[in-house]
């Protein structure tokens, strides 16, 4: 028999799922419309920016500099979103994103995913951290085949770390097309899908700004 406490916990989980799923959509809209205040307010007040800097103002400065320097316009399209809860106020997620960028004379398409950490503070969900992992970025008229698929105008091509969060990619290709001869592993425990796929792999350190 379901208790009142368990029912309230399930309702809270559903409301949290919806709030977290809206975060990447709000992030994309605020970014594409260049609303730096709306964008940085999706992160906690003590957000770490890099270079020893913290806070929303420092993050907004980075936002303004990056997007005025690289892009004339952008459009971010959200794909699949997986969310695992660590506890009622902390969660992690993987979300796909397909993006378009106007970069002067070139129209750059990008496929990527984010590895996110979420935190609820005073009843509101925020991004605690977003780790961008890129598969490719290339002009719409240039297929990104081959190595070093990150190909921004005027920048030497580089690796985007798209597959580096999950060791299964390298393990699969190391078999050189041979079937896996081991037993099928049991399903991941509830709220452990991402963690199970990561198999303890360290976090990649992708190049964030070209």
Walk me through the topology.
Layout: H1 4-32, H2 36-40, E1 48-50, E2 53-54, H3 56-70, E3 73-87, E4 90-103, E5 106-121, E6 124-139, H4 168-174, H5 193-198
Antiparallel strand pairs: 1-2, 3-4, 4-5, 5-6
Protein name: SnoaL-like domain-containing protein
Domain SnoaL-like: 13-130
Organism: Novosphingobium subterraneum
Would you write up a description of this structure?
The chain has helices spanning 4-32, 36-40, 56-70, 168-174, 193-198; strands spanning 48-50, 53-54, 73-87, 90-103, 106-121, 124-139. With 210 residues, the protein is an alpha+beta fold. The strands form 2 sheets. Strands 3-4-5-6 form a 4-stranded antiparallel β-sheet, with helices on one face. It starts with a helix and ends in a 12-residue tail after the last helix.
Can you give keywords for this protein?
alpha+beta; SnoaL-like; 4-stranded antiparallel β-sheet; 5 helices; 210 residues; SnoaL-like domain-containing protein; Nuclear Transport Factor 2, Chain: A; NTF2-like_dom_sf
Q: TL;DR?
A:
This is SnoaL-like domain-containing protein. With 210 residues, this protein is of the alpha+beta class.
Instruction: Sum up the overall morphology in one term.
Output: globular
Gross CATH architecture: Roll
Please, how many helices?
5
Number of domains: 1
What is the residue-averaged pLDDT?
A: 94
Structural class by sheet pairing and helices = alpha+beta
Helix content: 25-40%
**Biggest sheet overview:** 4 strands, antiparallel
* Content of β-strand: 25-35%
Q: What's the CATH class, please?
A: Alpha Beta
Write out the strand line-up for the largest beta sheet, numbering strands in chain order: 3-4-5-6
**How many strands in all?**
6
* Alpha-carbon Rg, integer: 19 Å
**CA-to-CA gap between the ends?**
56 Å
CATH topology: Nuclear Transport Factor 2, Chain: A
* Unreliable sequence segments: none
InterPro entries: NTF2-like_dom_sf, SnoaL-like
Pfam families: SnoaL_4
Protein name: SnoaL-like domain-containing protein
Domain SnoaL-like: 13-130
């Amino acid at each position: 028999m379901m208790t009142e406490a368990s029912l309230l916990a399930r309702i809270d989980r559903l409301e949290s799922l919806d709030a977290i799923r809206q975060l990447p959509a709000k992030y994309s809209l605020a970014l594409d419309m260049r609303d730096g205040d709306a964008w940085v307010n999706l992160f906690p007040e003590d957000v770490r920016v890099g270079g020893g800097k913290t806070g929303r103002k420092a993050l907004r400065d980075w936002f303004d500099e990056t997007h005025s320097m690289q892009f004339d316009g952008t459009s971010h399209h959200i794909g699949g979103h997986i969310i695992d809860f660590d506890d009622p106020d902390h969660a992690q997620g993987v979300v796909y994103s397909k993006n378009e960028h106007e970069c002067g004379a070139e129209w750059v398409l990008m496929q990527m995913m984010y590895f996110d950490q979420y935190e609820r503070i005073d009843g509101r969900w925020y991004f605690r951290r977003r780790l961008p992992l890129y598969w490719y970025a290339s002009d719409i008229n240039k297929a990104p085949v081959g190595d070093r698929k990150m190909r921004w105008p005027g920048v030497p091509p580089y690796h985007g770390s798209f597959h580096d969060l999950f060791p299964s990619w390298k393990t699969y290709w190391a078999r050189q097309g041979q079937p896996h001869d081991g037993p099928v592993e049991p399903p991941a425990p509830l709220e452990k899908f991402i963690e199970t796929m990561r198999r303890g792999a360290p976090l990649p350190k992708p190049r964030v700004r070209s």
